[in-house]
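TEACHING EXERCISE
Course module: macromolecular assemblies
Task: Read the component lines below, then compare them to the predicted structure of the full complex.
Student: A.B.
Group: 4
Components provided:
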Amino acid sequence: MKTFIEGSRAVADAVTVCRPKVISAYPITPQTHIVEELAKIVANGKVKAEFVNVESEFSAASVVLGSCATGARSYTATTAQGLFLMAEVLFNISGMRLPIVMTCANRAVSAPINIWNDQQDSLSMRDSGWIQLYAEDNQEALDMHLQAYKIGENKGVLLPVMVCMDGFILTHSYEPVELISQEDADRFLPSYQPEDYLNPDNPVTMGAMVGPEAYMETRYLMQEAMENSVKVIEDVANEFNNQFGRYYGGLIDTYKLEDAETVIVSLGSVLGTVKDAVDSLREKGEKVGVLKVRSFRPFPKDAICEALKGAKKVHVLEKAVSIGMGGIVSSEIKAAFCGKTGVPEIVGSIIGLGGRDITVETIIGILNGSGDSSYDQFIDIKKELVEDPEPSDEAVAANA
Amino acid sequence: MKLKPGAIADSHTSHGNLTGSWRTFKPVYKQKDCTGCKLCVINCPEGCVFEVEDRKYTCNLKYCKGCGICAVECHVNDIEMILEDK
Amino acid sequence: MIKDNLFDCGHTACLGCGEALAAKRVLQVAGKDVITTDATGCLEVFTTRYPETSWGVPFIHSLFENSAAVASGIEAALKALGKADEVKVLAQGGDGGTADIGLQALSGMFERGHDVLYVCYDNEAYMNTGVQRSGLTPFDTATATSPAGKYSWGNEHRKKDIPAIAAAHGIPYVATSSVAFPRDIENKVKKALSITGPKYIQIHVPCPLGWRSKPENTIKIAMLAVKTGLFPIYEIENGDLTGVRKVSEPVPVEEYLKLQGRFAHLFKKDGGKDEIKKIQELADRNIKKFRLN
Ligand SMILES: Cc1ncc(C[n+]2csc(CCOP(=O)(O)OP(=O)(O)O)c2C)c(N)n1
Ligand code: SF4
Ligand code: SF4
Ligand code: SF4
Ligand SMILES: [Mg+2]
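Instructor-supplied answer key:
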């Protein structure tokens, strides 16, 4: 039975059935509804957890670091500025191999301050050692939280997981979704049983200083764990499908891709619009398709190259930019193809920054090459905002 | 030994680091006028001073860094710092 | 051999390190049923050089500024796991990790009422990074970032009053102590751990390296800090001053200053006498404020 519910509340409900023991977060738009709902759920005793109201995101991340290290399943959520304030702790959490789950309600990064959606925040944290999964719709977002704990807590992985969902577009939209019952969740997700944790009966030291003799190896092992997670993410998606009958892809998913000559690659909620655009072009007989990147970390190099090998042209749509380089995801896809033969033409398209609307027409323009490409990778740039006005006739005459 | 995830360290492992090698001066516990006040035990930053028997104390030279606190704090001057012959 | 030690030999603190001595003492009193945190700083570095550790209790170091927040999370987890009655939480940090960069997290921990004892080892500068000034560096102290010079007497600012800030949170127990008084540390740690809620103890710990003092003088110098009135020892319970360590015949501050290279400029430069007078005034003010004599 489906429930018509706001994305944030659906996520809060999913987090609840994961039975977190400690929740700590600091409010920031558009993450607020998730943690407000969780506060309510804890206040009403629906889940036996400690809800720690901290004074900053830095402390939110530090609190869940401490609680997870003590053996308690832990949860936090944030976005944009909050995520950046957490940055130092994020690397610490992954370095300590603590499988915390966090929701990132994707939002643009200041300055200028902008509370609307893009994915600059999480994509900028790509090197933090967190697994990053991107949800396309609210059902996937809520289901992803159960998967996230199962992936992160896997003994071969032990990495934190960031569930990225587009701020407002998903967090604040109402959709009918299947919520997950406690019994079903318990069947899917076993309780958290770490091998080493802070416990006086078996004292260990966490966070020791590791010098040149072993630091490299800690990073090697994290990379290995990320690589292990490739299979685990697929397995968990399949297990989830077996139990719940819902599947969104493992690392990637494809849509009308089989014979596609032109492909759009993207992540997150924009994929809905992209699919609409593809449907309308397919009706006209154009061979277009979609590749959804569900896992950005680990980056599914092999799966992406395999899926795109038949394509002629690939447009990577992304809501973030590495200033001085261009698209982040497109750069990585190009790198993934490096040294291979039969490489499709790969074009980055930076789109929808700071909440700029992305229309089906724009995507069609990208797909059939009719769109405006006068601003390099940037799509839908307003000319009057970036170019000096044409000099007036008087000014031209005066200068002559 | 393979690193544990997160480079977790097992406790009681710093014993392996014999800091006695740092020493220039070494304390000699004369065991003559000792009153058993334990100030030497309490004030040693290494925690390496121990009671041999009633009113007889000594330190574990494997770890003693030779800071000299025990000699200054012993209220009956029963500990003397001497230049160590190595 | 020393068995069942909670703070093992083999740590790499400098000779005569007051911080090592105080931490050992605190841990001995706290016993084995604690989980400890520590901020980045000397203590963490000299006790946990992988793969070795000196801690015989569960220990976690995360970052420089989050010891109190990590401890908050541990306490919350113990509550949620039903272990809060058996296990205590001891958070630790240096003066920099506590009074400067970690102050916000500390305030949050106090305000939220976590059942945690926070101990600040106050050696009056950032020692781990090479003796730079902190908010707890005393007036006129020469450090690497507040050097004495032709136009400088060293650190221009007075020690930040963290115990007062802690007490202003309305927490049940705040105290200062000194490594010179092991029994005092024992009593205060015991008392603090018997009280539910946030507790704060700031322990004065000489650092021979940073203070440019002789390692054997660590206890002597710590004692003089108390006897001059420069580091008053007191307790604040539920906002009220409930106990002070009396200083019946205060010692002139010169006696304290002259044993430390960080104050050597006060004895060399013209005008140093006037500066020492200012320091004496600070001591006198403490003596009056806390009714030490
Ligand atoms: C965010 C951050 N800034 C700066 C540092 C560098 N740092 C490490 S320890 C330290 C000083 C520690 O001073 P204190 O807290 O007084 O402890 P002590 O070493 O004196 O015992 C500094 C500045 C750091 N590790 N992290
Ligand atoms: S300090 Fe001196 S008197 Fe006291 S126990 Fe030690 S050796 Fe004996
Ligand atoms: S000299 Fe220092 S380290 Fe050695 S026993 Fe005495 S107090 Fe301990
Ligand atoms: S620098 Fe100071 S605080 Fe740090 S280990 Fe050396 S004596 Fe101790
Ligand atoms: Mg310090």
